[in-house]
Amino acid sequence: MASISSLGIGSGLDLNGLLDDLQKAEKEKLVPIVERQETQQTKISAYGQLQSALSQFQTAAEALNDSALYESLSTSVGGSAITAAADEEAQPGSYNVTVDTLATRGTLASEGVAAADEAITAADQKLTLNFADGSTQEIDIASGSTLEDIRDTINATEDSGVNATIINDGTNYRLALSSSETGADASIADFSFDGTAPFTADTANTLQSGTDAALTVNGIDITSSTNQVEGAIQGVTLNLQEEGNSTVKVEQNTLKVREAVTGFVNAYNDLKDTISDLTSFNSDTGEAGELVGDSVVRTVESRLRGVLGGVVDGELSILSDIGISQKYDSGLGYSKLEIDEGKLNDAIANNQEALSTFFAGDTEEAGMAGQINTTIEQLLSSNGRVSGAIAGAENSKASLVEQYTRMEQSIEQTMSRYRSQFGQLDGMIAQMNQTSSYLTQQFDALDAQLGRS
User: Fold this and answer.
1) Which residue among 3, 127, 198, 266 is buried most deeply as judged by most CB within 10 Å?
2) How do residues 357-414 score in pLDDT, each as one tens digit?
3) Is the pLDDT of residue 146 over 90?
4) Domain annotation covers residue 17
5) Where are the alpha helices (DSSP H) in 130-253?
6) Do 361 and 414 reside in the same domain of the chain?
7) Is 0.90 surpassed by the pTM of this model?
8) Are strands 125-131 and 136-141 parallel, antiparallel or unpaired?
9) Does residue 302 sit in the same domain as residue 162?
10) In 10 A of CB 61, how many CB atoms?
């Protein structure tokens, strides 16, 4: 049989068009698989949103499951004489602070020299710095040093006890020394050279002794070599700013507790909004959320409802005792947590110990926050309902990818078979047409002969 280079040439039929139609029909078999893939991907995304909202609620609950939260203290300062900060050792109290004197640094200048950049030492020698507490510091000065070199050498010496600069008094240049630390004992008192002195200390005119800070806390006299006073009030650091009076109040940090409780309520309500979006159904349009009727969502809601409605041992035993209640919103069509500000304020201001017992308990899982954390941990664990649902959807999607590949291969095999069969058909019809044409010619010739006879 003669080969056909292009389908339809031999038969005159539109076999290519027919093959295209058959291929389109075959590829329709892929559509349900693609749709199921999209459904699984939508579910994976939806479960991911649920997982994220649960994780955020868990984080908010963990913040309340820390007894240190209810023991944290804050300081408030009245007046501008000081600032203050409390640490974990501080105790609640009120203090009157009077700053009489700030701690200052001692200063001293040298006699003047004519130029700052001309050599003034003829040999190597030692510069000895003397301090008010009787201590000394020796610094090696090289031969041929200028006033600038001496300044730089002092500043390059670790633990020299002073900072050096150069001041021009309008006529001469002077080496100016300032104690590195504040306080009377750290004050620079004098200096000298062990050889021929290039200049001397002007103690008569420029020496200003450093002073200790002097203050009173609730009438008790206190001195400090620095303006950062630690230990005068247990667990509180006072930073002296100026002379004058201030008050310091150390009290429980109610703001942190309130922020944590509010964050807990907001995170739960965000979770409820997410669940509502995922399970919504619009009867007018027929549009449905990705997880409408999903058993995993029902499990999540049921587990959390059980914990939030549960009882905790203690003076405060249920959420409503601290001013948190579930309220149905007819506009939304579901319940959300709501805060009774007055009741919560009272619990935070007057009963943080009971609040700590309610949320944090005496063990990690005893309080309300611990129970919520445990529940969500179970839901999100590798063998939990949410993670299991995600894994199941991912496995289904992977299986559908394999199914899609197999179907594509099957379609290609079918189309290859059709092309082969159509090629055979085309050749057969072509041969038949040739035979028909030949017979027609023979019959025409026979008719012509019979007609002549």
Assistant:
1) 127
2) 999 888 878 889 999 999 999 998 888 888 777 777 777 777 777 787 887 788 788 7
3) yes
4) yes
5) 147-156
6) yes
7) no
8) antiparallel
9) no
10) 26
